[in-house]
Write a structure and sequence with these properties.
Blueprint lengths: L4 H40 L43 E8 H11 L9 H4 L7 E9 L22 H5 L8 H10 L8 H13 L10 H11 L9 E2 L3 E6 L5 E2 L6
Antiparallel strand pairs: 1-2, 1-4, 3-4, 4-5
Amino acid sequence: MKLSKTTLNIIILIFAALISYFFGSKEKEKSITPATQTQTTVQTQPTPQTTTSSPKTTVITSSAKETDYDAVMAEDNLGQNATAPVHYYMLALSWSPSFCENQKQKNGGYVPQRLSYQCAGNQNFGWVIHGLWPQNKNARSVNDQPRYCQGDLAPLSPQLLEKYLPESPGMTLLQGQWEKHGACAFNNAEEYFAKQKALFQSLTLPHSDMRKNELFRWMRKNNPQLDRVYLGASKNELYICYDKSWQPMDCPQSH
C-alpha cells in the first residue's frame, strides 16, 4: 500500500514532535530535580539553636521566693538553749549595703543563694530587720541566751513569710529568726513577725551609713522615745532594747 507524499510528511512531523517532547521532558526534569531536592533539604534540616553565654556575674538570683529556706538546728554552731529565762528583748537592725559587701568579700565576690533577694537584686535596701531576740540579763556570752527553745521546727509556709518581706529581706532569714529566737517568747510565728515589723516601723531611721556615735545621736534626736536610752551597735548593726512591756530600755554596755 502506497502512502501519499503528504501523508508521509505528516507522519514524519508527528514522529519528530513526539521525539522532541520526550527528550524535552527529560531535560526539564533534570533541570528541576536538583532545586526540588535542595528545597526539601532546607525544609527538613533542623533549625540551628542559638546559644549565648552570659558574662560572669556575682548575681546568682534576685528572687525572694526561695525553695530551701529551713533552719536546721543540728547544723547551728551554737545549738539549743531552751532553759534560759527571757528578761527583755533586743531588736537587731542591719545596714544592708555594708552587710552585703562583707558577704561578697567572704564569698569571692559572689552572693550566697540564701542572700540573693537582699544582696543581688535592685531593691537598694537600707536598714532592715535582722531579728527580734529574747534576751537573758544574766547571760555572759551568746551561748547563754535563749535559742531554739522549741527545737527544730517545720518550715513555715511561703505565703506567711512573703507577708514580712522586704523589712526582713529573705525567707531564710525569717525562718531562721523564728526558730532560733522568736519561738523562745512568742506563741506563733506570725505574732513574732508582726511585732518586730511594728517596732521597726515605729522608728525613724537614717538613709546613710554613719559611725556609731553619730548614729546614736541621730537616732535619739529623731526618735524621742529613745532619748537617754543606751543603744548598742556592732560593725553593721544597730541594737535597740525593750523591756517586757515593750518600752525602750538601756541595752547592756557590752553591745
